[in-house]
TrEMBL record:
Region of interest: Disordered: 121-140
Signal peptide (residue range): 1-21
GO MF annotations in UniProt: carboxylic ester hydrolase activity
Residue stretches in coiled coil: none
Keyword line: Hydrolase, Signal
Native source species: Hymenobacter polaris
Stored SUPFAM superfamilies: alpha/beta-Hydrolases
Cross-referenced Gene3D superfamilies: alpha/beta hydrolase
Name recorded for this polypeptide: Alpha/beta hydrolase
Keyword check for Signal: yes
Residue ranges of every copy of the Xaa-Pro dipeptidyl-peptidase-like domain listed in the record: 152-391
Length: 459
């Protein structure tokens, strides 16, 4: 859940004017624009009489060569990024070297201008990430594979072990929602690489792994839920406990965001973890979590109380339809008119309905942490940042504390860390736009809090 699971419903389509047919210069070249904190560089190939082609680079997201569909009509230019269900529609400015238009994604329309780069102009500099570990390292690191809970699926990861013979306490890291690699890479940040390096230097072995269908892991993430991820977490625990040099009675799970949900589910089963670390993990009902997230992020752009109230009502109405209609056909029939009234295009309506009725999203809506936390009896550390807008610290930490203590768990440590966002970066507002612009990957205060607690519970 590092990126918001919300619906932005105010949308309108860019409709270029109809100008008489004309012969225009080729668009071949490199075109750069800024979309909030992201730099987009489109490489257009527009040969005379030949087929057009295009790719897109987004350096802040470590993405290069993303395929674009590229078409024109008179002086209008259209680009479609299928992997993100996003499109650009714009017009050539009079100078011939500027494309002015709008970027449509997730139902939102954002102004975007592409400017043609002169030959030889340098590419955008990669963002600084000073905390990313660089060798040589004072510990052992090796690639590993182990069987997933799904038949025939192998999960690939990295095991880092302190120098010496052990036995060492150990922890398995579980990433948030969506396809994630073992480093939990986002906007060129690698928070799990930073965390693994820190803990291993302090004497804790760390296993981190690619999600199903991501990186070197086989299988597919499509159709999976947090319960599937919890089963993979248990498989990782079992494999790690069997390794020489690991203290079998001191192997825990650390889950970030929705990875925390999977960690809680795994902890409530036999042969669960010896301890649990929850980073920005949900502690309230899933449908309420999404509503609060939507309103919190909207509040950064909208100050009108009536508009915010309308956003909240609309979100609750959509989620209620999904919860009250387990049959997807019935849910789709009731969602379509609601989304159409919000002004979404037909294809975007289909995409949103597909998201809302997917197994993973339904599982998120139905998540009830209080029920699952009641099954957790191992020691728990729960941390959250005061500026987290995706999983608000106050209600979610309170829910975690209450759920654990109601079942008699007394070894519970809950801390709200001032000034940190959902990724545990020092933040001004908590806005998602700050994730990529921050040079900090993981606030040192969070690293120390985790390391001190794990070592205290891994003796």
């Amino acid at each position: 859940m590092k990126l918001p699971l919300l619906l932005a419903l105010a949308a309108c389509l860019f409709r270029p004017g109809s100008a008489p047919a004309q012969v225009l210069p080729s668009l071949s070249g490199d075109w750069r624009g800024s979309l909030g904190p992201l730099t987009l560089t489109a490489h257009l190939r527009d040969p005379a009489g030949g087929p057009r082609s295009a790719t897109l680079d987004v350096p802040e997201q470590h993405a290069q060569g993303l395929p674009l569909e590229f078409s024109t009509r008179n002086d209008s230019v259209f680009l479609y990024l299928a992997v993100a269900h996003a499109r650009f529609a714009g017009k050539r400015a009079a100078d011939g070297h500027t494309l002015v238009g709008d970027w449509e994604q997730a139902g939102r329309l954002i102004p975007l201008t592409f400017t043609q780069l002169v030959a030889g102009q340098a590419s955008a500099a990669a963002p600084r990430r000073p905390q990313t570990p660089k060798g040589p390292f004072p510990y052992r690191s090796r690639p590993v594979t182990f069987a997933s809970s799904a038949p025939g699926v192998m999960l690939a990861g990295t095991l880092t072990e302190p120098a010496g013979t052990g036995p060492f306490p150990a922890v398995v890291l579980l990433t948030g929602s969506g396809p994630e690699d073992r480093d939990e890479t986002l906007f060129d940040h690698k928070p799990f690489a930073v965390l693994a390096d820190y803990l291993t230097r302090r004497g804790v072995a760390v296993l981190r792994f690619d999600d199903r269908g991501v990186g070197q892991s086989t299988g597919t993430l499509a159709g999976t839920t947090s319960a599937d991820y919890a089963a993979d977490a248990r498989a990782a625990l079992g494999w790690l406990r069997a390794q020489p040099g690991i203290a079998q009675q001191h192997v825990g799970l650390l889950g970030h965001s929705e990875g925390g949900t999977a960690a809680v589910l795994a902890a409530g089963r036999p042969q669960g973890p010896s301890f649990l670390v929850l980073l920005a993990a949900p502690g309230i009902a899933g449908n309420e979590l999404i509503v609060q997230q939507t309103v919190a992020l909207a509040r950064l752009q909208v100050s009108d109380p009536a508009a915010l109230a309308a956003t909240e009502r609309q979100e609750r109405e959509l989620l209620a339809v999904v919860l009250q209609n387990p049959d997807n056909a019935q849910a789709r029939a009731k969602l379509r008119p609601l989304l159409a009234s919000a002004g979404l295009s037909a294809d975007r309506t289909d995409q949103v309905i597909g998201q809302l009725t997917s197994p993973g999203y339904r599982a998120l809506l139905a998540d009830r942490p209080a029920r699952d936390l009641a099954q957790v009896h191992c020691p728990v550390l729960a941390l959250n940042g005061s500026k987290d807008l995706q999983v608000a610290a106050g209600p979610n930490l309170a829910g975690i504390r209450q759920g654990l203590q109601a079942a008699g768990n007394r070894d519970v440590t809950v801390r709200e860390l001032p000034g940190l966002n959902h990724l545990f970066q020092t933040a001004a507002t908590g806005s998602i736009a700050e994730y990529s612009t921050s040079e900090e990957t993981f606030a040192p205060v969070t690293l120390q809090a985790i390391g001190d607690w794990v070592l205290a519970h891994g003796k």
